[in-house]
Fold this sequence. Notes:
Elements (H helix, E strand, L loop, with lengths): L7 H13 L4 E5 L3 H20 L8 E3 L12 H11 L4 E6 L6 H10 L1 E6 L13 E3 L15 H13 L5 H17 L6 H13 L6 H9 L6 H12 L4 E2 L2 E2 H7 L3 H33 L7 E5 L7 H12 L3 E6 L3 E7 L6 H6 L5 E6 L3 E7 L3 H11 L2
Parallel strand pairs: 1-2, 1-3, 3-4, 4-5, 8-9
Antiparallel strand pairs: 6-7, 9-10, 10-12, 11-12
The chain binds manganese (II) ion.
Amino acid sequence: xxxxxxxxxxxxxxxxxxxxxxxxxxxxxxxxxxxxxxxxxxxxxxxxxxxxxxxxxxxxxxxxxxxxxxxxxxxxxxxxxxxxxxxxxxxxxxxxxxxxxxxxxxxxxxxxxxxxxxxxxxxxxxxxxxxxxxxxxxxxxxxxxxxxxxxxxxxxxxxxxxxxxxxxxxxxxxxxxxxxxxxxxxxxxxxxxxxxxxxxxxxxxxxxxxxxxxxxxxxxxxxxxxxxxxxxxxxxxxxxxxxxxxxxxxxxxxxxxxxxxxxxxxxxxxxxxxxxxxxxxxxxxxxxxxxxxxxxxxxxxxxxxxxxxxxxxxxxxxxxxxxxxxxxxxxxxxxxxxxxxxxxxxxxxxxxxxxxxxxxxxxxxxxxxxxxxxxxxxxxxxxxxxxxx
Length: 389
Ligand SMILES: [Mn+2]
């Protein structure tokens, strides 16, 4: 028998206990497609479990990082927000698609009285947060056979443990549709279950019951393939618009009202088209500006760069220049950047060599991110140039 993902049964048991005892649960997910779908899958599974057991539907507090003002993952501002909602109770806080690199933030959360459970698919760094339960297939002690799930896929595995044979086929195909979107959005390898979920999710897309997906189909120009449609849906979801730690795509994907969903879809599509235009313009500018650069890396940043499209720009530049690309948006004291590297290079490992000057960093080998104090940018650049020599 193949080994299960480490701690996945333990995590399911703890969530089940919380539902049966009608505990307050907090879910904190990353703000992108993978994070948002992970949250929706877990939240809906918990609600389902509660009603199957005739328990009160728990009032789950859901929050996301404000990528424009706070960066990624669990962070101090978000924790302050969550702590206010918590009051004096002891609360189970589940992080999805983030958390595994947040050593000091988890420590802070413990102090505030949260019981932290991390469900993340990102690379595990040397130092591991002191969370009560960690589910991450990339954990060095994890002996499971497949490590490349999107976080939504990992969350689906978790809710399979949670609901066991009580997951209805309707709920299952709804979850797989979300997992398909996240697996494609996060560009996970199309092998093993990822491949199966993508196949099934795409096959069921025509029968989707989600008003948000139907609304996307309605507002988008006709497309020639399901893959193209999914690509466009993903770019619609690639927004950082949020209010009060709720990303707009979360309310969108949960919406039960087709008219409202259509309004949001139109708004998000406009936002996405503007973003695409900015991505094209910035990419062309940088190509022109850097075409005679002798450096072995691209290392560019500005106060005018918006964090929501840096990933797309970096991806295009890495294909064009075939060297590691570090591109960041500069704020008052800190800069937050995104990294894309050519095949065979590990972006997280490269940054590990500079971890003493980084505030946070993490991600996947080909695609990662960092936060750094502005006065360390020059040193970071010099050390990366040396590292890649
Ligand atoms: Mn992810």
